[in-house]
Amino acid sequence: MPNQARVYLCCWRAEPQPPARFRVLDWQSEWGFHACFSIQWRQFLFRVLYGPETTFTNNLALIRMPENNYLVRAPLLDPKQKAVGYKLSWQKKEGESSDEADLRQLLAFVAEHVPGSSLGFLFLDAVPAMLSAAALQILPPSKTVLVLNRADLVDENHVALAAALRTRGFGLALRDPDLACLEQDETLLPLVTHVMLNAGHPEQAAIVKLAKTRKAPLSVVVDGFPGWREFDACALMGLNGIVGNLCFMPRKPNPDEKPSSQAILILQLMQLVQDNADIRHLEKILNLDSAISEKLLHHMNSARFGLDGHIESMRQAVSMLGYKPLFRWLSLLLAMTSKSGFSPALLQAAIVRGRFIELLGQGLLHKSEAENLFVVGTFSLLDQLLGIPVDEVFSQVVLPEAVAQALRSREGALGPFLSLAEACEREDGGAAALADALSMNAERVNQAHLAALAWAQNIKF
């Protein structure tokens, strides 16, 4: 543990509260463990959850928290552009990199806040000292991939630790190896489950060929795409790719493209909901499109609502759901009506944005304002999802002024929340300053980010 932290541990009682980068918990009674487990077992669980630097004094635990680290995600896409996992890291300024302490904190934070395998595959940068980290006792082995350099697997002790992790089912990825290394190193290859190559790697084709001929499975993952053209080329080869700039490398919308007939109907419904139209009128419009009405009935009769009876009519569905939730549901449905170039990953990114800023706004905005945050997040990518200019959408439906202002200029009551979510999608997005402006700390933002990812992963579309 750093000396500074040891000093705080000794003297924090004399201060009004411990420094923000440390967190104090009653380790004797947290989670009600005091009656169930021994002292040694409780301390072990705390170190597993919060990292080996956790120190104990009397009945209190001092935990070193990420000071001002903000989570950034890069989705792992399969060839059909479906997000099957994420590479998680801390946001850094250009030219900066994470040190061992940062990587350990990230591992501990993810272990604490990611429920099971809810996010799919998780790729996390690592160093050899982390191969025995206590946090690995919590993460799901079959969905966790530690990314290492070739030089990290030279020492015999490191190789032994890596082999132990592989026995438990963890994945190990080798970052940018050369072909000769993979062909000749008989010790290394059995340990590696993934090879991570930068887009444009000169030996990519040869390494892909080697992976296909290898007896044990070896997945090639490409990282750092400059644009969709490069991703599409890899997709044709059947490769998965990590797309860090997913939301910021749009396919250009066609200025002559018009919304589909179904999209126009959904926009009409959204306008009627905005105008608080009579439920009979809404029912009539909903019944014009059997696909929309069937989806709404399926949504209402799904297990999440837990209704005793079975909803059979549009009037029942709208009455039970309510106008505000119906507007939210229609906004999701609208995002799925693209006639060409539909991207499941982009749709999921829009859903994540919506849920993310909705969680960020809880307790900070009036309920009537906070309910619009989800729509702001999903609509912020609508032009990319539909392949049409956003003004074309605005011409079809009159959005609440706060929503329109947030989408057009990132201003007003809702705009700063959208700006913060967008910043958390960039490796150097400056999330700290935007969070400070909203009086939020990194822990709150990061927890909302992970919760939004898990929530979106469970949405079926």
Could you walk me through the main structural features you see in this protein, from its secondary elements to its overall organization?
With 461 residues, the chain is an alpha/beta fold. The protein has three domains: 3-64, no CATH class; 71-244, EAL domain (TIM Barrel, Alpha-Beta Barrel); 261-457, no CATH class. It is built from 21 helices and eleven strands. The chain has helices at 3-11, 39-50, 100-113, 156-168, 179-184, 204-213, 228-236, 261-274, 279-286, 290-300, 314-321, 323-335, 344-361, 367-370, 373-379, 382-386, 390-394, 401-409, 415-423, 431-437, 442-457; strands at residues 22-26, 55-57, 60-64, 71-77, 83-90, 121-125, 144-148, 171-175, 194-198, 219-223, 240-242. The strands form two sheets. It has an eight-stranded mixed barrel with strand order 4-5-6-7-8-9-10-11, surrounded by six helices. The chain has a three-stranded antiparallel beta sheet with strand order 1-3-2, sandwiched between helices. Strand 5, helix 3 and strand 6 (121-125) form a beta-alpha-beta unit. Helix 13 packs antiparallel against helix 15 (373-379). The protein is globular, with a radius of gyration of 25 Å. The two termini are 46 Å apart. The model is unreliable at 1-22 and 26-35 (pLDDT under 50).
Radius of gyration: 25 Å
Count of the separate structural domains = 3
Beta-strand content:
5-15%
The number of helical runs is 21
Q: Trace the largest sheet across and list its strands.
A: 4-5-6-7-8-9-10-11
Outline: globular
| Total E-strand runs | 11
Largest sheet: 8 strands, mixed, barrel
Helix content range of the residues, please? 40-55%
Mean pLDDT: 82
Distance between the termini: 46 Å
Summing up helix and strand content along with how strands pair, one would put the structural category as alpha/beta
Pick out the low-confidence regions: 1-22, 26-35
